[in-house]
């Protein structure tokens, strides 16, 4: 594993660092805008007062903190493989380029000593999981990794209720940021409540300090940050387009780790780019908030 020098130095000095995932760049957003978004997300972390550390596998090396050429490789690549935790070692041994999912990013970030991580939406239990058994490995990783994931809830293509039940079973804390409703990724409200809320970065930092005190911080924490209504997707449009996408995915026999990229791409195309705009905005906003929380944690 290679930790970028400025990231290593910041960590050694107790300065705020925020990890960023790379699957959303390579498999979640269309080229070529994805490279611009990757830069924009890193800039949002800096504006929030922390150092960004984008995580990826570059020519077989697990990197925490990417330089500009590496960021280009991940954004450009047809030959970039989507890596969950179990894919990291085989892909590394073959010298492959790999984009890390929430699970793989959380794993490598925690290993590097980073606590804050920003993404778009968590993976979770897929609709129809009763037949397909498709549940994202993100959940299992959060159950065993000391990481705080700032996201806009779980992706709305999923069974959100079932995912919330699994997060409860796995002991993952869920905090609504400025809300009592669990956000729905592109949507302000997933239709589910969230039990605990925090209204400022300092409040989140206080909760994390309590976790350390009580020894309950060995598992992950989700900080669920909704889009403001003016930037969210129209729920009726969302439901209509998603339902066609789910039908197409089934008809075309899409399975395994291809399901999520397939559905996101379908939404981006069929909403005329509206879901894409919402997706970019929520990732940028989450990056900024994660940085502010990291700064509040460091200030303690
Ligand atoms: N958030 C986004 N876009 C994405 C993802 C998250 O805004 O593409 C990615 C994350 O990397 C997450 C993955 O870990 O989707 C989940 O994939 P799966 O359902 O195959 O576990
Ligand atoms: Mn899956």
Outline of the structure:
49% of the residues lie in helices and 19% in strands.
Task: Quickly list its features.
300 residues; alpha/beta; Indigoidine synthase fold; eleven-stranded mixed beta sheet; binds pseudouridine-5'-monophosphate
Give the secondary structure arrangement, pairings included.
Elements (H helix, E strand, L loop, with lengths): L1 E2 L1 H8 L4 E4 L2 H4 L6 H15 L3 E8 L2 E4 L3 H9 L3 E4 L1 H9 L3 E4 L1 H11 L3 E3 L10 H4 L4 H8 L3 E4 L8 H10 L3 E5 L3 E4 L2 E7 L2 E3 L2 H14 L6 E4 L10 H17 L7 H12 L3 H26 L1
Parallel strand pairs: 1-4, 2-3, 2-7, 5-6, 7-8, 8-13, 9-12, 9-13
Antiparallel strand pairs: 3-4, 3-6, 10-11
The site of manganese (II) ion (MN) has 4 residues, from loops.
Description:
It is a single chain. The protein is α/β, with parallel strands linked by helices and 300 residues long. The chain has a single domain, classed as 3-Layer(aba) Sandwich (Indigoidine synthase fold). Helix content is 49%, strand content 19%. It is built from 13 helices and 13 strands. The chain has helices at residues 5-12, 23-26, 33-47, 68-76, 85-93, 102-112, 129-132, 137-144, 160-169, 201-214, 235-251, 259-270, 274-299; strands at 2-3, 17-20, 51-58, 61-64, 80-83, 97-100, 116-118, 148-151, 173-177, 181-184, 187-193, 196-198, 221-224. The strands form two sheets. Strands 1, 2, 3, 4, 5, 6, 7, 8, 9, 12 and 13 form an eleven-stranded mixed beta sheet that branches. The protein has a two-stranded antiparallel ribbon with strand order 10-11. α3 packs parallel to α13, α10 (201-214) packs across α13 and α11 crosses α12 (259-270). The longest helix is centred in the last third of the chain and has 26 residues, at 274-299. The radius of gyration is 18 Å and the shape is globular. It starts with a strand and ends with a helix. 52% of the residues are buried. The model has no long low-confidence stretch (mean pLDDT 97). The structure holds pseudouridine-5'-monophosphate (PSU) and manganese (II) ion.
